[in-house]
Amino acid sequence: MLITRLDRRYWIVLGACLTQFTIVGLLFSYGLFFKALEEEYGWSRTLLSSCSSLAFFMMGVLASFGGHLSDRYGPRLVLAVAGVFCGLGYALLAHVTAAWQLFVVFGVFIAIGMATHDVATLSTVARQFQRRRGLMTGVVKVGTALGQITIPLLAAFLMALYDWRLTLTILGYGAVVVLVCGAALMKSPAASGEAGGGVSEPGIHLKDVRRNRIFWMICAIQFSHFTTLTTVPLHIVVHGMDLGMTSTLAASLLSVMGAASIAGRLTVGGFADRIGGKRALILCFVPLITGLLSFLFIGTPSLLFGAAAIYGFAHGGLFTVISPTIAEYFGLKSLGAIFGVVVFFGTIGGAIGPIMAGAIFDLTNSYFYAFLTLAGLAALGLILVLRLPASNPGLIPNAAAREND
Question: Which whole number is the average pLDDT over 10-22?
C-alpha cells in the first residue's frame, strides 16, 4: 500500500513537471517569432514585448482564482482546462492579422495557462510531500528549466523545416496533448479526495490570512525578487553584447544561467526541508544581491559568465522556495489561493521590471542604474526575510505524517 501511494505521488510530480516544462518552454519560444511577425505585419518589438508583459500581469490577476479552483475542485480539471486554453492560444497566433488579436490571445488564452501552471502544480505537490516538500518542489521546477532549454530548440528546428505559422500550429496543438496528459497525472491520492482541500487539512483560510502581517511581508518579498527574475534574463544577452561579446557568445549566458538555476532549484529545495523557508530564502537572496552587484562593475566579458552563474543559482532557488515557505507559515487549507495572491504581487514587479530596465538604458545608454535598482530591491527583500518570525509550529506535520513521507 505504501509503495502504491509513493508511486502515485511521483506520478503527480511527473505531471507537474510536464506542465511546467510545456507552458514556460512555449513562453520562452515566443521571441523566435519576433522577426517573422515584424516582417509580416510591421509590428514593433515594443508591441510584441508588451503582449508578453500583459500575459504576465494577467497571470497574476488570475492566479489566486486559479489556486482557489484547484483547492476546491482539484488540480486535474483546472490544469486540463487551462492547458487547452494555453495550447489553443499558441495555435491561434498562427492566424492573427491585427495587433488587438495578439493582445487578446496573450491576455486571455495564454494568460489562463500561465495562471495555473505554478499555483495548481506546486500546491498539489506541497500537499503530497511534507518532509521532502522543498526537494520535490525543486524537482518540479527543474521541468521549467528544461522547457526553457528544449522547446525553443524544437521551435527553431520546426521553423527550419516549415514556415512560422505551421510551426506555431504544431507547437500549439502538441501542447494541448502534453498538458492534458500532464493534468491527468495530477489526481491527488489524499484521503480528502482529488480536490485536496478537505476540512481535515491544517492551515489558515485566505480571508483570515489577509489580516496577517507575515502574509504581506511575503508578498513584498515576492515583489522584491520577481522583478529581477523577469528582467535579467531579458536584458543580460544584449548587455553582454554591449561589453563586446558576439551574439552567439552572449546568448550562451542564458545557458549558463539555466544550468546554474537547475542546481539552485535542487539545492535550495533540499535545504528548505532541513533549515526552513526563512533560511532558504536567505540562501537565495545573498547570491542574488552578489550577482546583481557584480553586473554593475564587471567590464570583462569572460567574468560575466561567473556573475551569471551566481545569479542563476539564486534565480532557480527563488522559484522553488516560495511555495514550501507559504505552506510552512499558513498550512495547506488554502495553499493554492494564498500562493496565487503572492504570485500576483510578484507579477506586478515582473511586468514592470523589463520595461524599467529598457527605459533606463534608453536614457543613460547603460544598464548600471537598472542593475543598481534591482540590487536595492533585493536588499529590501533580504531585510524583510530577516524580519520574518519562526514558522508556525502548529502547522508542522506530526510524526505520523512524516513517517508516510
Answer: 88
